[in-house]
Each structure stands twice: as structure tokens, then as C-alpha cells.
Specification:
- By secondary structure, this protein is of the alpha+beta class.
- The chain contains 3 helices and 3 strands.
- The chain has helices at 17-25, 49-56, 69-84, and strands at 9-15, 42-47, 63-67.
- It has a 3-stranded antiparallel sheet with strand order 2-1-3.
């Protein structure tokens, strides 16, 4: 139900080798990639930003949000804030 909130959109995520392995292994809340628009390293999804955020945030440096820019910035802000406590 949480992913019904918000408008689905095309979201691009670049994955490392470890990121691709994690994507293949983690099924819970996994967004379905659009095969025809994805490349070997950049996966394209049609889902909400909340779903991408919840799924990929734990990937750390193994997942880079390419677009949309506002989601990329949200990842950066959250990581910057977390780093301040360490």
C-alpha cells in the first residue's frame, strides 16, 4: 500500500557488480526493471520514488540514482546527514 502513494515514473539506477547481485537476491519490495530501457549497468524502473528509496538505500555505494535529480539529491542529503553522526 505504501507504494500506491505517489506517481509512478521512470527512475534510472546504476548498479555495481555487487549491486546487481543484491538486486537478484532481494525480492521483498523489489521494483521490476524495464528490460527494453535498461542496459547492463543502468536499470530503468517505472515505480514511485518511495519504492526506489526504500529498496535501494541499503545498497549504499552499490546503487547510484541517476534520475530523477530530486531523488538523487534526497539520497545525497540523507547520506550526508547520517555521516555527520560518525
Amino acid at each position: 500500500p505504501a507504494y500506491l502513494v505517489g506517481k509512478p515514473e521512470h527512475i534510472k539506477v546504476k548498479l555495481t557488480k555487487n549491486g546487481k547481485r543484491a538486486y537478484q537476491a532481494r525480492f521483498y519490495s523489489r521494483p521490476e526493471k524495464i528490460e527494453s530501457l535498461s542496459t547492463d549497468d543502468v536499470y530503468v524502473f517505472d515505480c514511485t520514488q518511495l519504492q526506489i528509496y526504500n529498496y535501494f538505500f541499503s545498497f549504499g555505494s552499490d546503487a547510484e540514482i541517476i534520475s530523477p535529480v530530486e531523488l538523487r539529491e534526497k539520497f545525497k542529503r540523507t547520506l550526508r546527514e547520517a555521516l555527520k553522526i560518525y
